[in-house]
Amino acid sequence: MSDRAPLSNWLEESRAKLARAELSPQAEPVGWVARVADGIVQITGLPDAALGALLQLESGAYAFAQSLDPEVINAVLLDEGAAVEVGDRVSDTGEVLQAPVGEALLGRVVDPLGRPLDGQPAPKTEARLPIERPAPEIIERDLVAEPLETGILVVDSLFALGRGQRELIVGDHATGKTSLGTDAIINQKSSEVICIYVAVGQRASAVERVVAAVREHGAPERSIFVAGLASAPPGLQWIAPFAAMSMAEFFRDRGQDVLIVIDDLTLHAATHRELALLTREPPGREAYPGDIFYLHARLLERAAKLSPELGGGSITALPIAQTDAGNLSAYIPTNLISITDGQIVLNTHLFSANQRPAVDVGLSVSRVGGKAQKPALRAVSGRVRLDYAQFLELEMFTRFGGISNTRVKAQITRGARIRALLTQPRYSGLRLADQVALLAALADGALDAISPEAIPELRAQLPGWLDAQATEAVGEVAQSGELSDECRAELVAAVRALAKGFARGVVQSDEEDG
């Protein structure tokens, strides 16, 4: 009897609960996979799904709505589609596509959805932000008035970057575009700038080299690596730069400065074209859909300097684009040049001549950063670009005969030293004081006594020499950014003294050769 009593109580309680329960019909929108191929899923049903909505398939894979037709949703898979089959059930999560954000991502290598690629546990991020967010309005922005120092002399002196600027890095294949962006990230080890490197369609080995370089020479604890690898589904490659920009906006909205390098938007455009053709969007020029300009414009416009009322944070974007045979008038490079605030053009011939970085000073320009350049650097770099351009022209004309004009000889001599100064090895960023000292010494003729071949070694020894011989001048330039006459004289004297030692060694070797 004791066993029957609990059973009877349970029956009575269950009947009472059923009697009190309110039964009413419930409708849940459900979609079905009509077709799947090449990373694209066509879905029927889900009439209330929004553009960009995050959809979950029966297999557990995720996709986002790329385009909405009257009867079909064209969705892009964010996971491998091997387990997705026709007839699978699809549900709308009710959310748009979001990216994880927060300090937990610092030092990590993740995919655009925040999943770890470095073999460590998943980062415990603070929040999630939509990958598509509106760019700051004009009234919310501030002037670009603070420099972003890359440590690369040719960039900082001739094509200076400001915090909040968008500067395109463009050139043919294998001309050092990624290296330029990586060096800019590495140089932020001496600043408070947060760095984000986003790879779009790159090989895993290429991304590993960038990560290894930053970990060895830079500040990986303030860097995030977002990888939409070539082996990843096209959907992940497509959302990679947008997800990385949302990660950057988390820090920007807290008043911090962020540098984001996007490598590269040419491959991103190719991925967008692939998805557009698979979803039967009408093709335009070079088979790209008509919205390709708007796609990159709404991405790069999110890089800006916010007003003090909004915290004063900034995002500086260095997008990378690839050209074929130096053709800057191609569709995608032309679009990006018109969107950004300037471009750094890398030249194949200069790269082949072992001039690294192979920056073409005639085609490169920075339309904003010069306003943010430190006064000390601006004071000594004013004529460098003009003198170097004249040297390149004179060098071309003097290849076929001797030089009799004294003034032309002087220009050739000065130009050869400018070229040697602008040729800079990787991972050897220069401080502001080092750059100012070199350019001031060049203008005052302190480097004329040594051969151009000796300048790389002089540059390598210069930081330690200046710290010992011109301590006060180095401190003044670093602290104030100004260059007084006394400070300039002290820096030039220190460089001249260092150059004399190199000159004596060069002269001695020349005499021995004679």
UniProtKB/TrEMBL annotation:
Matches recorded under PROSITE patterns: ATPASE_ALPHA_BETA
Catalytic activity: ATP + H2O + 4 H(+)(in) = ADP + phosphate + 5 H(+)(out)
Localization annotation: Cell membrane; Membrane
Record-linked Gene3D superfamilies: 2.40.30.20, ATP synthase alpha/beta chain, C-terminal domain, P-loop containing nucleotide triphosphate hydrolases
InterPro entries, per database record: ATP_synth_asu-like_sf, ATP_synth_asu_C, ATP_synth_asu_C_sf, ATP_synth_F1_a_nt-bd_dom, ATP_synth_F1_asu, ATPase_a/bsu_AS, ATPase_F1/V1/A1_a/bsu_N_sf, ATPase_F1/V1/A1_a/bsu_nucl-bd
The keyword Transcription belongs to this UniProt entry's keyword annotation: no
GO cellular component: a single term: plasma membrane
Residues at the site labelled Required for activity: S364
Domain (ATPase F1/V1/A1 complex alpha/beta subunit nucleotide-binding): residue spans on this chain: 151-366
Primary location class: membrane
Keywords for this protein: ATP synthesis, ATP-binding, Cell membrane, CF(1), Hydrogen ion transport, Ion transport, Membrane, Nucleotide-binding, Translocase, Transport
EC annotation from Swiss-Prot or TrEMBL: 7.1.2.2
Annotated GO MF terms: ADP binding; ATP binding; proton-transporting ATP synthase activity, rotational mechanism
Purpose of the protein: Produces ATP from ADP in the presence of a proton gradient across the membrane. The alpha chain is a regulatory subunit.
Family (UniProt): Belongs to the ATPase alpha/beta chains family.
PANTHER family cross-referenced by the UniProt entry: ATP SYNTHASE SUBUNIT ALPHA, MITOCHONDRIAL
Protein name as catalogued: ATP synthase subunit alpha
Source organism: Thioclava atlantica
Lineage of source species: Bacteria, Pseudomonadati, Pseudomonadota, Alphaproteobacteria, Rhodobacterales
